[in-house]
Amino acid sequence: AQSVTQLGSHVSVSEGALVLLRCNYSSSVPPYLFWYVQYPNQGLQLLLKYTTGATLVKGINGFEAEFKKSETSFHLTKPSAHMSDAAEYFCAVRADNYGQNFVFGPGTRLSVLP
Amino acid sequence: DAGITQSPRHKVTETGTPVTLRCHQTENHRYMYWYRQDPGHGLRLIHYSYGVKDTDKGEVSDGYSVSRSKTEDFLLTLESATSSQTSVYFCAISDGTNYEQYFGPGTRLTVT
After folding, report:
1. Which of A59, A98, B69, B103 is close enough to A63 for a disulfide, judged by CB 3.0 to 4.6 Å?
2. Cα–Cα distance between B75 and B87 in angstroms, integer?
């Protein structure tokens, strides 16, 4: 079965510092990988996704992630954190090879310090 | 924003009572999902639907049932609510072409 681990349930960075949120997955099928963001008291919204093609994918709000098959990783980065980036971030992987279901990681809460 | 609404947004109920949560979409998307969100667990799939009257179980389906009689509505029923079902419930939709899910605003359910 597919699974997702996110190292660090809570990450704090200073405003302007690099953001790095880690995601590792276990998948028996070619992975389709996603990052979602959840702002307080809201639903999730898609930041970026990898399905096929270029392994470095760019998303909204300056975030990007790189698919590294050898490391089974899909870490999320942003060069310079902004106060508005404070939120919870979820990594997800497609659950199987034919369906439209997904497995989510436990989430990482990002705090941005002034 | 995708047109997804959930009702009610907040509910407090007593153990043993049935509860129905509603998800309504205006996007005509084929797939609809119910998740629950609990600290440390991320989102876990309860049930999903791949068309009208077509539903299947997810990872944590025990104690829950669903129905989809129209494309736009997906109902989640807790047959006899328990305290372990206290959670935030999210509905999501997908058109099935690009693997992107769009989420509703959530329903916070407290079972006392």
Report:
1. A59
2. 16
Query: Does B88 contact chain A (CB < 8 Å)?
Result: no
pLDDT, tens digit, 9 for 90 and up, residues A16-31: 999 999 999 988 777 8
- Counted across chains A and B, CB pairs separated by less than 8 A come out at 57
Q: Judge whether A49 is closer than 8 Å to chain B, CB to CB.
A: yes
The pLDDT of residue B1 is above 70: no
**Phi, psi angles (nearest 5°) of residue A66:** -120, 125
> Rounded distance, CA A14 to CA A17, Å?
5
DSSP code at position B16: T
When CB atoms are compared, the residue of A43, A49, A102 closest to B106 is A43
Give A25 to chain B, closest Cα distance, Å. 14
pLDDT digits (tens, 9 = 90+) for B44-97: 999 999 999 999 999 999 999 999 999 999 999 999 999 999 999 999 999 988
Q: How far is CA B87 from CA A87, B17, B32, B57, B76, in A?
A: 19, 16, 19, 18, 13
Name every chain B residue with its beta carbon within 8 A of the beta carbon of A49. Answer: 99-100
